[in-house]
């Protein structure tokens, strides 16, 4: 049998790339933020526009990446972005490289175990090994490239290709300063275990030079003498300089041991080597290459470094799995039942990894997992409404937005999370009141500094008042467009009516459940006559049951088919003296695991604003075999001192207004016209042509608001 006919592994690598990129694409379209990716996109856009690896870090200043990380590798792959300047280009390159990780691991296993079945079990187990998935599915960081680069470096050394080994070692060094550690350790391995001692010595010396060059040449050039180095902040418990940190670690060994043996740190190690049955300890000469970085992670004052949902363990993963292969080779030296024992262990490794991602929170990035985070991949009508805004903002405008939109607004010089922009008069603010409450969201000062430009699906776009100019569409088309710079791009908004929707509130204070136990009734405030549409956000949640096995929480799905029921009641007393003027059971498959906007057409209900109306949210149950089956939903509350909200804790038998005092269900009421604001962008001449076309097809739009001169400096 010719075990070299292995082209299928390349197909598997391509398939993994396609899966990873497609999941990231849906995540991007659903505006689910990834860790740090927006900062890298901004760096690349600035590089393409003359400011090499600069970004503003949510502040009023521009910073070089080299102030924190010396990562020349990013410039090596920059030409690809320069050819295709799209927010997802960097992710395309990222996954293309990451997906090759399985190739050298497969070939190494094939050489060592001399079995295609064994090699395939190694490769497939690695692809569902959750610490690997978290290095690149959670977000972007140049350090995550270490996994494929180090696997290739080790494999090419194994195949006696020393110059290729040297090249991949250099590429790994170019990621970040901490890559000096695994590359130096790998160089020592090459000196001790291979015949290419000169190449190994060169890589070891190159690693030491890289450390010196970064610490004493690069960082001082990008930091003031009085500034503490960024990397020193990761170990602030031990000092403020590299010397202080090293000294205190050496002089206090007991505290070091105490820190790395804390329960959470041991759990960190358990999740890294447990899925491979702790076999790497049987190949300590390989495992040791990746251990120093793990120890560094556990010593760090920055808790994220020893969390498996990040990328800080990327450079250790290759040696955990390479050591596993060598350990299996050694176990396979048993003469009786060699292949049976090895493949049984490999089957156990595959099954363990499958069960972990299938039934624990560690499987949130795997579509087949019970814990798969569906909300980050669902594209709803709200996401499409957000895209309408995002695709119409010229890159010259500075923008503040919720974290979910930072990746979409990153291709510009100035961008801010909404929680950070206070004090900086950015040009535009895109605000989502349904974003995570942890973002400390506040709407801009609409009385003095900002005016509302656009509203749709509970999204708000605000612009600085000193940039806003309002015209009748006719005046702009005939003469006013001439007053603008004909070579600049502008943003314009055309509203169909002066009577904008009213809102119960614009900031989420909490999210509450609606199910067979919890029901809600909200008194509606019809401030004006002729209400046309009532809208409110709701999301569905999954029912699950938890099972603890060997100390690990497993999550299993629980069937439920009850649907959300929305009713509008007319009457002073919604419990006794009322009539139902609207009732509908919402189809569960039309809702998402993230906010969806439910709309109720009020124009047909003959609403009398002088009467009292209530919105009631409860459950319509289904039964199976005499057992009631329910699902669960969530709705959003906002601060409102004058609201009348009642909540039931027993399925609607008793109601109380004390559960959430001075709070209201988030809802909006549109009056008269229900047509949306139309956003357009372009040069004055292009805006003129677009407005002319719009007036030919609709007479509902009379005015246009143009966001005028744009600031270059905040």
UniProtKB/TrEMBL annotation:
It comes from candidate division WWE3 bacterium GW2011_GWB1_47_11. It holds the Pfam family DUF2079. Keywords: Membrane, Transmembrane, Transmembrane helix. The chain crosses the membrane at residues 6-25, 90-110, 117-134, 140-157, 164-192, 198-219, 271-296, 308-328, 340-357. This is DUF2079 domain-containing protein.
């Amino acid at each position: 049998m010719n075990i070299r006919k292995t082209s299928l592994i390349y197909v598997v690598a391509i398939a993994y790339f396609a899966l990873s990129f497609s999941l990231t694409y849906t995540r991007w379209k659903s505006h689910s933020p990834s860790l740090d990716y927006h900062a890298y996109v901004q760096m690349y856009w600035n590089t393409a526009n003359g400011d090499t690896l600069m970004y503003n870090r949510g502040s009023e200043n521009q910073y070089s990446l080299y102030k924190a990380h010396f990562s020349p590798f990013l410039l090596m792959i920059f030409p690809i972005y320069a050819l295709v300047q799209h927010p997802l280009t960097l992710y395309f390159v990222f996954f293309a490289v990451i997906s090759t990780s399985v190739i050298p691991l497969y070939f190494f296993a094939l050489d060592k175990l001399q079995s295609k079945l064994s090699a395939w079990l190694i490769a497939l187990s690695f692809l569902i090994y959750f610490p690997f998935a978290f290095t690149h599915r959670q977000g972007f960081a140049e350090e995550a490239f270490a996994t494929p680069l180090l696997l290739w470096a080790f494999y090419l050394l194994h195949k006696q290709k020393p110059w290729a080994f040297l090249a991949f070692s250099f590429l790994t060094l170019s990621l970040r300063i901490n890559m000096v550690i695994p590359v130096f350790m790998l160089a020592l391995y090459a000196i001790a275990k291979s015949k290419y001692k000169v190449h190994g010595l060169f890589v070891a010396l190159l690693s030491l030079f890289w450390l010196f060059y970064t610490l004493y040449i690069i960082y001082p050039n990008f930091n003031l003498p009085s500034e503490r180095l960024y990397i020193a902040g990761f170990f602030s418990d031990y000092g403020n300089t590299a010397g202080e940190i090293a000294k205190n670690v050496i002089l206090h060994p007991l505290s070091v041991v105490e820190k790395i043996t804390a329960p959470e740190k041991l759990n960190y190690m358990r999740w890294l080597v447990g899925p491979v049955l702790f076999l790497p300890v049987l190949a300590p000469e390989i495992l040791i290459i990746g251990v120093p970085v793990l120890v560094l992670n556990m010593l760090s004052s920055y808790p994220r470094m020893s969390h498996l949902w990040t990328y800080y363990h990327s450079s250790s993963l290759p040696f955990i799995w390479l050591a596993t292969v060598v350990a299996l080779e050694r176990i396979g030296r048993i003469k009786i039942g060699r292949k049976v024992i090895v493949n049984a262990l490999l089957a156990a490794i595959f099954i363990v990894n499958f069960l972990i991602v299938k039934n624990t929170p560690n499987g949130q990035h795997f579509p087949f997992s019970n814990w798969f985070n569906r909300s980050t991949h669902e594209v709803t009508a709200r996401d499409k409404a957000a895209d309408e805004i995002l695709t119409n903002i010229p890159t010259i405008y500075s923008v503040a937005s919720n974290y979910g939109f930072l990746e979409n607004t990153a291709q510009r010089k100035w961008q801010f999370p909404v929680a950070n922009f206070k004090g900086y008069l950015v040009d535009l603010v895109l605000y989502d009141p349904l974003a995570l409450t942890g973002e400390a969201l506040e709407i801009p000062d609409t009385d003095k500094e900002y005016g509302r430009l656009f509203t749709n699906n509970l999204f708000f776009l605000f612009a600085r008042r000193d940039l806003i100019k309002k015209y009748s569409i006719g005046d702009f088309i005939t003469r006013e467009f001439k007053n603008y710079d004909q070579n600049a791009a502008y943003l314009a908004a055309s509203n169909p009516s002066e009577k904008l929707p009213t809102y119960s509130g614009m900031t989420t204070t909490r999210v509450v459940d609606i199910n067979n136990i919890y029901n809600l009734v909200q008194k509606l405030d019809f401030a004006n006559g002729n209400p046309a549409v009532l809208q409110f956000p709701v999301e569905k949640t999954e029912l699950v049951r938890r099972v603890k096995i060997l100390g690990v929480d497993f999550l299993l799905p629980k069937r439920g088919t009850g649907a959300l029921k929305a009713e509008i009641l007319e009457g002073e007393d919604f419990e006794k003296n009322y009539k139902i003027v609207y009732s509908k059971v919402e189809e569960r498959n039309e809702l998402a695991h993230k906010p969806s906007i439910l709309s109720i057409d009020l124009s047909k209900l003959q609403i009398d604003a002088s009467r009292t109306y209530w919105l009631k949210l409860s459950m319509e149950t289904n039964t199976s075999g005499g057992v009631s089956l329910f699902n669960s939903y969530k709705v959003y509350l906002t601060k409102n001192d004058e609201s009348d909200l009642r909540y039931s804790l027993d399925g609607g038998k008793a109601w109380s207004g004390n559960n959430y005092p001075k709070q209201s269900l988030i809802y909006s009421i549109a009056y008269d016209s229900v047509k949306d604001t139309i956003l357009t962008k372009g040069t004055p001449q292009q805006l003129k042509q677009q407005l002319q076309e719009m007036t030919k097809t609709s007479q509902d739009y009379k005015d246009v608001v143009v966001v005028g001169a744009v600031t270059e400096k905040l």
